[in-house]
Amino acid sequence: MDNARPQAPAGKPVSASAVELATLVEVADTNPMGNIHGGVIMKLADQAAAAAAIRHSGRICVTASIDQLDFRSAVHVGDMVVLKASLHYAHRSSMEVGVRIEAERLQTGVRTHVASATLIFVALDDQCRPVPVPAILPQTPEEQRRFARGEERYRARAARRQQEKAAGTAARS
Ligand SMILES: CC(C)(COP(=O)(O)OP(=O)(O)OC[C@H]1O[C@@H](n2cnc3c(N)ncnc32)[C@H](O)[C@@H]1OP(=O)(O)O)[C@@H](O)C(=O)NCCC(=O)NCCS
């Protein structure tokens, strides 16, 4: 038996690690027009997604990539930003996390979908090496759809990195 390679832990449902994070938009978060800076949304999305990845894996996780971040509408000072993060897909040590970002105008209770993001995290062991994470057990049809799309994107990313590696090796030889 190879004791150096930890076994993948038992699978977990998406709901076990889903995260909701809410915060009020302050003046320091906004531009002179009172709209939130995109970088503030990016930081919050990274935090919410990291929390979901850490919950799922039970490990320290690093952001490997931000694959997608689409802004749909502005967020204003005084609004409450609500981020909902959940795992789409997990492979060996990596996890794809989707984040839906909404803004609530507190005076009216009206919520708007302001952005969506997809981020990839890698779980690390105590020596900062990638370590196996639990499988995802998608339960609802939506979770199953996200899982299948996440698996396709994982394969596309792996193929792209492989190509880049081969191109780098060829350029150096
Ligand atoms: C992410 C990181 C741990 C990967 O390390 P590595 O030595 O390249 O690891 P491997 O090639 O063995 O890949 C490990 C996993 O990471 C995934 N991965 C590596 N680079 C990736 C990237 N750019 N995008 C998405 N996934 C990536 C691989 O697909 C693999 O997933 P799998 O185990 O599920 O198959 C390493 O590149 C790193 O530490 N990067 C810096 C992270 C960081 O500082 N983030 C910002 C602050 S948190």
Question: Would you spell out the secondary-structure blueprint of this structure?
Answer:
Layout: E1 12-13, E2 19-24, H1 38-57, E3 60-71, E4 80-90, E5 94-105, E6 110-124, E7 136-137, H2 141-172
Parallel strand pairs: 1-7
Antiparallel strand pairs: 2-4, 3-6, 4-5, 5-6
Report on the architecture of this protein.
30% of the residues lie in helices and 35% in strands. With 173 residues, it is of the alpha+beta class. The chain has one domain: Hotdog Thioesterase (Thiol Ester Dehydrase, Chain A), CATH 3.10.129. Strands 2-4-5-6-3 form a five-stranded antiparallel beta sheet. A two-stranded parallel ribbon has the order 1-7. β5 and β6 form a beta hairpin. The longest helix is centred in the last third of the chain and has 32 residues. The termini are far apart. The mean pLDDT is 94. The structure holds coenzyme A (COA). Coenzyme A (COA) binds next to β3, β6 and α2.
CATH topology: Thiol Ester Dehydrase, Chain A
- Heteromolecules bound: coenzyme A
Low-confidence segments: none
Number of helices: 2
| Strand order, largest beta sheet | 2-4-5-6-3
Q: How would the global form be characterised?
A: globular
Q: What is the rounded Rg?
A: 18 Å
- Compute the average pLDDT: 94
What is the level 1 CATH name?
Answer: Alpha Beta
Biggest sheet character: 5 strands, antiparallel
- The CATH architecture name reads Roll
Number of strands: 7
Structural class computed from helices and strand pairing: alpha+beta
Estimated share of beta-strand residues: 25-35%
CATH superfamily: Hotdog Thioesterase
Helix fraction by DSSP (H/I, runs of at least 4): 25-40%
Order of helices and strands: EEHEEEEEH
How many structural domains can be distinguished in the coordinates?
1
Distance between the termini: 38 Å
